From TrEMBL:
The gene is tadA. Coiled coil: none annotated. Residues 4-122 form the CMP/dCMP-type deaminase domain. Its cofactor is Zn(2+). GO terms for molecular function: tRNA-specific adenosine-34 deaminase activity. It comes from Bacillus suaedaesalsae. NCBIfam families: PRK10860.1. Its EC number is 3.5.4.33. The keyword Transferase does not apply. This is tRNA-specific adenosine deaminase. Belongs to the cytidine and deoxycytidylate deaminase family. ADAT2 subfamily. InterPro entries: APOBEC/CMP_deaminase_Zn-bd (IPR016192), CMP_dCMP_dom (IPR002125), Cytidine_deaminase-like (IPR016193), MafB19-deam (IPR058535), tRNA_aden_deaminase (IPR028883).
Amino acid sequence: MTYELDQYFMSLAIGEAKKAELMGEVPIGAVLVKDNKVISSAYNLRETEQRAIAHAEMLVIDQACQKLGTWRLEETTLYVTLEPCPMCSGGIVLSRIQRVVYGASDPKGGCAGTLMNLLDEPRFNHQAEVNSGILEEECASLLTNFFKQLRDKKKEVKKILKENQ
């Protein structure tokens, strides 16, 4: 994979993240690619569906398995805007994804190199190559702006409630 291709596919994941943001979801998006073709794409639906496992990565893995008719997603690359968490990293290992490319690091839950690297754990029967920092600023700013807007809304609500007491 070339850097330009990585940027292209990450831009598609960013597009998925923006769909999540429009729904009030944490803006995280993912695409799964095989032979330079998108197999599946998804974005976070945890709040909408009230399902703990409705992370972009888990949804994109599930879609790909259904589409390809196999749980083995060998020779695929996962592009995701935020570093995978422990659950998603587990799904990546168990589905045999070959390579993971992510944009922004997750200092609170990242398990693809930040807190630990479950994707390169030699005790598992599969490891995935990890590349980080692709379109990192754009991926990070999506999250930063989203959470800033949430905090600003909460402040505004508190202000209104205080004024109306």
